[in-house]
Amino acid sequence: MSRDPVLVVYGSKRGGTAEIAEWIGESLRAAHVPAQVRAAREVHSLEGFGAVVLGGALYTGRWHRDARRFARRFARQLRERPVWVFASGPLDTSTDDGSDGNAFGAKAVHKCANRVDARGTALFGGRLEATARGFPASAMAKKNAGDFRDRSRIEAWAKEISARLG
Ligand SMILES: Cc1cc2nc3c(=O)[nH]c(=O)nc-3n(C[C@H](O)[C@H](O)[C@H](O)COP(=O)(O)O)c2cc1C
């Protein structure tokens, strides 16, 4: 097994995707794979990391800017390492079967994943709190608030990663 830690990085606006990244980090460590979790915009080098899991929230059909920038900035280094990509978005259970479901923006995520030769890409449900402030989130929250992140599915995905790194 590679001794270098896995870097789990995320772009998140309202914290839901950041928490998914933490769950992934915890699952990797539980499988004896060292992992560090960071906000994508705070990472300035991939040196010392053996693999990367890059995730971002979906907003208006786009992957979070920090995730896109990270993929662009480190494209070459990412292609030299095992990489997995995820996105969190739909406020429903449509991705629970492993498909892209109603994830508006999934295409852009797959495109980015291809560019960095990702070994796997997963789309997860999102979370929008009923108390979300600011427009249009507050208006959306009136109809679509809820937590659609399936933690056990996310942990199973992380376990697959640890098995492939092992
Ligand atoms: C204004 C707004 C736009 C959104 N646009 C999309 C979208 O285009 N596609 C999608 O799948 N989810 C969309 N969502 C759902 C978010 O991706 C979901 O709430 C996600 O969990 C947010 O992650 P974060 O808490 O890490 O910011 C949108 C949510 C809001 C509030």
TrEMBL record:
Domain Flavodoxin-like: 6-162
Signal sequence extent: none
Matching Gene3D superfamilies: 3.40.50.360
InterPro entries per record: Flavodoxin/NO_synth, Flavodoxin_CS, Flavodoxin_dom, Flavoprotein-like_sf, Protoporphyrinogen_IX_DH
Domain of life: Bacteria
SUPFAM superfamilies reported for this sequence: Flavoproteins
A GO biological process held by the record: heme biosynthetic process
GO MF term (any one): electron transfer activity
Protein name: Flavodoxin
Origin species: Nocardia terrae
